[in-house]
Hints:
Subcellular location: Membrane
Family: Belongs to the TVP23 family.
Structural class: mainly alpha
Number of domains: 1
Order of helices and strands: HHHEEHHHH
Helix content: 55-70%
Radius of gyration: 21 Å
Transmembrane segments: 32-51, 58-76, 122-142, 149-168
Number of helices: 7
Largest sheet: 2 strands, antiparallel
Shape: globular
Main location: membrane
Organism: Seriola lalandi dorsalis
Mean pLDDT: 79
Amino acid sequence: xxxxxxxxxxxxxxxxxxxxxxxxxxxxxxxxxxxxxxxxxxxxxxxxxxxxxxxxxxxxxxxxxxxxxxxxxxxxxxxxxxxxxxxxxxxxxxxxxxxxxxxxxxxxxxxxxxxxxxxxxxxxxxxxxxxxxxxxxxxxxxxxxxxxxxxxxxxxxxxxxxxxxxxxxxxxxxxxxxxxxxxxxxxxxxxxxxxxxxxxx
Length: 201
């Protein structure tokens, strides 16, 4: 009994794999996107820390910080997520008037325009660390009874966490190969799949 030997038809392109690995671990391919991914959120945190010293007017501080975080929300959701990690999410209304959330992950292929590993690290660390900082500000405002600052911090956390949640959903789509059911995706899904979070860092 003879078995067909298909090994001759298989070509292993190790050089292309090495080039792809070198390209992915290269420095920053999208410097402007990487800069603005961190710029607005870092400036908002610095403005929050220095607001009492710079201006005693709470309203101007509130407007400045919320404006910075709104710019951050838009740029991360619409630009840096797509360029740095190949993920995007949005909301659309169908013909029946129902609101549908769409989460997409770009398939990684040789020569595509997604970012490098360094850019992915910048993206995920910025996306995860900043909400943690705002959560720390929440507890400091709560325990020092600065109620008006508490409202600012809650608004800041909600803007930051919305993007984090959306991109974790996109990451789950990319790893599972199919979108998870939007009604059943909760923190429990993340606990069942810790590789979604740990794989990013």
